[in-house]
Fold this protein.
Amino acid sequence: MTVPHPDICLAALQRRDRSYDGVFFTCVKTTGIYCRPVCPARPPLPKNCVFVATAAEAVAAGFRACKRCRPESAPGSPAWNGSAASVRRALTLIDSGALDAGESPAAVELLGDKLGVGARQVRRLFAKHLGVSPVAVAQAKRLAAAVRLIDAGRMPMAEIAAAAGFGSVRRFNEVFAVVHGETPAGRRRRTSGAAAMQLTLTRYQAPAFEVLVVTDADGVLRALDFSDFEERMHRLLARHYGAYALVDGPAPAPVAAALDAYFAGDLAALDALPVATGGTPFQKSVWAALRRIPAGQTSGYGALAALLGKPGAARAVGLANGSNPIGIVVPCHRVIGANGTLTGYAGGVERKAWLLDHEKAGNRG
C-alpha cells in the first residue's frame, strides 16, 4: 500500500477526514502512539508525525495503539465501528458478570482491559451513551436478579446475594435499601401472599410517539412510559407495588382529556391529574418538586436539591429523577444539566427535546 503525500495526510488529520480512515495511520514520535485519521484526540504537531500505510508497520516501528480510536482493529469490527459498539460489548460483558467481583476502580480497569481501553475511557463512554457509570449498570443488573429471586420463593438471603453477584450480604442489604427503600427481607414480607393490585393499561397515541398509561381502580395515574420501554415499566411497577395485575382498557376520561389537552397546547392540563407512586420518601419529595417546575421552564439537579433543603444531594436527586415511574405528567424532562445540555433522559434525549420544544411553543402561543 502507498501512503499519501505527508501534506495530504496532515490535512486529512486536521479535519478528521473519514474518507482516509484505513488509508494511513499516524505515528506520533513524542508519545510512541499510533492513531487513525479520525481519532478524537487533539491532533499532534506536524513535526512529530510519521505516516504509515498499515497498523502492522506502526507496531513494527515500535509504536503502540491509541486506546481512543483503536487503530489495531480491522475495518468492520466493533471497535473500528466506534464507541457505541464498545459500550454494547461492555454491556454484554457486564451481563456475563464482568463487574460482579467488585465495584472498585480496579474492577472497571479489568473491564477496560477486555475492551482494549483504559478505565477512564470506559467511564467516559458510559457517561456519553448511557448517562450512568458502568458500576451503576452492573449494580442495577444485580438488583434486578435479586428481586426476581426474592419474589420467586424462599431462597435464603445469603444465597440470593451470592447468586445475584454481591460480594457480601451486608453490601447486598445496603444497596437494596438505598435503591428500593426497603430491605430485601422487607420486600419478601410485603410481597409474599399479597393480593395483586388491579391496574389498567392504555396505549395512548401522542403526536410523536405512543405512551403507556397505567391507572388504578380509582382512576389515579400510577405509571406513564413510552411504548418501547414497556419492560422497564413492568420493572418499576413490580418494584413499587409487588404483585399486580395489568389488563388492557380505556384510560379514565379525565386522564385521556388531560393528555389530549396537553398535546394540543394546553400545558397546564396535566397539573391537576392525581398521581400515586411507591418509592422512598426522598424519591417522592423529588417527584413532587418536579411537578412544581412550570411548563416551558427547566431546572437543574443542584437547584432541585437546594429546593428540597439538601444542597449536597444533587447526585441523589439525579438518581431519583431517573427512577420516576410517571413520565411527562411528573415532568422529569424539565431537568437539564448545569451547563444547559439536555443530559440523559429515560425515554431518549430526542423525546426530551421534543417535549421541551412542545412546551416552549405552547408558551409562545
